[in-house]
Amino acid sequence: MTNEDEDASKEKVVHVKKLCQGLQSLDRKERKQVYVEIEKYLSNPEIQFSNQELRNIFSETHMYILNGLRDRTEAVREQAIKFINFLIINKLSLNDFYLTYLFPVVIERIGTVELIEDSEEIRLQLVQLLDNIITKYSNTEQLKPFLNDCVIILAESVKDKYPAIKELSCRTIVNLATAMPRDFHMQAETLIKPVLTCFNHQRYKVRVEAIYAIGEVIMHSTYKGLDEVVTPMAEKLFDHIPVVRRAVGQVAARWMLEYRDRYSFFHKILPLSLTGLNDEVEETRLEAASLWEKVGMQYQQENEKDLKDELDFLYELPKYYPPDIIRPNPGCRVLVKRNVSKIVPAISKELTCWQEDIRVRCSQLLCAIALHAEEGITQNLQDLLLAMYTAARDDDIRVVSNISRASELLGWFVKYETWSELILPLIEEGPHYGHLTVLHGLVKGSPLEFIQPHVEKVSKYLAEDSICNSRKDKYQLQMANCVRILCTKHTGGIKDNTGYYLFKIIVTLLALRHNENKEKITESLMDDLRDTLKVDSCKDIWSLYTGRLLQNVQKNPESWTPVTDEACIFLTTIELCDEAFGENLEPVSNILEKLLDTEADSEMRLKTFYVLANIFERKCITFEKSPDAAQFLNRLIKEVFVPSLVWRAGASAEAVRAMAVHCLRHALAPPTIGVAEPFAPDELRVIADKLFPLLASLTEDPSYRSRQGALQCAAFLADKCRKADAWMVDDLIAVYSEFLKRLDDPTEKVRITALGNLPMILTDVPEDFKNYTYKAHHEMIIDTLLTHFDDDDPIIQDLVHGALLTTATINKEILLDKIERHKPVLRNVEGCDKIVEELSGMKITEIDH
């Protein structure tokens, strides 16, 4: 170098030093301007600076320049950082000499526990400066001495309250690890705890960068570091932001591909990768599947010799495999199978965790594990099922759905003989709907060829009274699901007892169903069973199994109450079975006699009479296939209705009488056209002798419903007796007088019923009753009716009009005479004239008959 060059170099240094004197000014604007001037001078394209010249300038001025980072004015410190960034990054060559002076100042400002730099923006710029330095000095020896300084700064800056600083610090940590791949391990673990503080930050971008930072740090840490971060990483799988969950999956996949001791930690990293396979977001699922396949392929290649004998088998698709699922590659399946025993205990524990998100992700993980482990999960099935029973009762529908899906997968891969020995005895001991949820999935997943021979056994378990007799709403729903799926797995028709067991469960569900399940559990279940058994209609099912079911429930009917299971099942059976009722009259009558005994529960009797009334109302169907309907009704009237109609004190007894009469009315009502009368004449006479006196006394009952029903029953019974030629004069005299009394009843409905049914009593009376001997009765009937002919109610008037016309068939002369004699004192003169006019048009034969 010539003297001129040396002088020029010195002149450059002197000039910069002169500019630096302005940094001592009291004016902050001047201090700030100095940095601008120096940068402008060093950037002058007309002036060339050698590396040595720049080094000399730095040596002479660094104490002034770096001191600007401590300036009391924020604007000056900001300008100082910009200048240092320009000088260190853009102008100066790679040399640890410069960093030696810079790092102590940066550490002083942002690398201490006590916060020195109070400006968030300045702290952010200092971290950015550090990041730029690391990038420039990446993979150089010059950066190695400052590894500790970098870590000290980043360990504090990553804990900064300012989110942008946290985010940048995490990225800088990744850059540092990349810049010093051979040395970073010496300080890597120091950064674990500081970075973990960002995992719960409210800004999702900070969480994402923290996850990537931890992923990089662990790549350079010992196994202790991995143990420390697995749990926090797993917690981020529950994050509500999809990109956070994706970051976890990406980091976990990298660990499984690149972590040097990964084989020892596969069981801890696997859940982080597999959970993403069932993520709610499709993009996350697809990426997780792609990464996981890559992991499996690498594992397969690394263990090709070990797996040589298995690979042919592993590639062969099983005979039965879920049709909607693509089978994972052999490496993925082997990797899971070899670690499943270490994963399942953790899954079993976390499925019952108090945190909802953990249960959701854990149930998703279970689906992935079941799919990959296939039959390899068998040894861990017992502990896993216990946790699944509890998780299946979770309030979160997502958990229940995943448990159902996992159960279905287990059914595909685990043999029936294995899972049935674990779940069926447990159900027998004390079932809850969690058991049934899992059982439903297992049966659904089991291939038809393997489960079909055992459907009868499973159905028999579920048909036990202690298992199927439940009133819990969720339990019933799951039981119904089990019935539906068992129907799809049964192919034996009516050859075995499966049909009866399923029938029994269905009837029990219908009988005991919770109010919440009225629309969810319906008779459509019987349609499913009909299709399964391949019979023509549901009526055939009732015909096949009603008798057996009645034999099963007839346990002490006299002690039943409305909430007794057997009572509910019995009533539901006889109400729904239609023709099967008539085919099983013997067991039905045996139960009814005891159930409707006068000493039995009154509320139960009320309910039973109500159901019987509905059955008798459609007796054309009920007794369609019954050859002994008359015998049944005869027995029922003698043994049940007659004792029930006898007056007893008390409100309950009164209600029972009213309902018994209501039921009897339907039993005595005329049969539908085309259906034969069930009573023979001799049987009818015996029934009439017992019923007429009771019905007569019931017309005085305090309950208007009993009075009204007694009148209707008497009219129906009289009609039957008349048609059977068993209608006696004494019967008529005993009955009609009670009808006439009820014309003065305080209840309008009873009066109308009496008038409405009186023509049925007075039509076709015995011939002897028309004789002169019974004239007093004729007059009494006509006088009473004419008295009520003046009623203000037009309905009453019309009914009396009809009744009077009917009496004309008994004694027309007396009727006409009475009308003429009463007309002057009656207001309803028009009605009287109308009757006379109508009677004059009648033929003599019609009247005299």
UniProtKB/TrEMBL annotation:
GO terms, biological process: cilium movement; inner dynein arm assembly; outer dynein arm assembly
Domain Dynein axonemal assembly factor 5 HEAT-repeat: 320-512
Any one GO molecular-function label of the UniProt entry: dynein intermediate chain binding
Source organism, top-level taxon: Eukaryota
Occurrences of domain Dynein axonemal assembly factor 5 TPR repeats (ranges): 23-309
GO terms under cellular component: cytoplasm
Pfam families recorded: HEAT_DAAF5, TPR_DNAAF5
Protein's UniProt name: Uncharacterized protein
